[in-house]
Amino acid sequence: MATGVFSRMYKLRFLKVYKHVNERESMLQVIPEDEYPSINCLLLHWDAFPLSKFPLRFNTYCLVELNLRHSNLETLWSGVLVTSFLTILTISSCFRYSNVQYPTILWCPLLRSLVI
C-alpha cells in the first residue's frame, strides 16, 4: 500500500479489510510509520492485520469497535488505552497469541465485549 494513502481519507468513518478464509496471511503490505485513519474513525475491522504492533499514530479516541482478529499482533499499545467510546475489542486468533501483551484498559467506560 502506498505511503500516505490513509492520510488523504480525513473523513473516514468505517474501515474493513478482509482476507480470504483460506489464506494464512494477508497479502496487503503496510508501512508501520505511515499516517492512519483520522480521529473520526468509528470502526476498524482488519482481518490479519500485518503489523506486530498497533500503530502509535492511530488515534483511538472515537473508536467504537476495534476488530483485529487473525492478526500478527504482539503488542496493542504501550501503557493505558484511552478511548471514551470503545464498546467492542476483538483480538482473537492472533498468530502470536501466546506472546500478545494486552493494554491496560482503564479508560474504556463503555466497553461491553472483550474477545481475546
What's the Cα radius of gyration? 13 Å
- The low-pLDDT segments are none
Tally of helical runs: 0
Total number of distinct structural domains = 1
Class inferred from helices and paired strands: mainly beta
| Spatial strand order of the main sheet | 1-2-3-5-7
Number of strands: 7
Strand content: 15-25%
In helices, the fraction of residues equals: under 10%
Rounded to the nearest angstrom, the distance between the terminal CA atoms is 28 Å
Main beta sheet = 5 strands, parallel
Shape: globular
Q: What are the secondary-structure elements, in order, as H or E?
A: EEEEEEE
> What is the mean predicted local confidence, pLDDT?
77
What does this structure look like?
By secondary structure, this protein is mostly beta strands. It is built from no helices and 7 strands. 0% of the residues lie in helices and 21% in strands. Strands 1-2-3-5-7 form a 5-stranded parallel β-sheet, with no helix packed on it. A two-stranded parallel ribbon has the order 4-6. The mean pLDDT is 77.
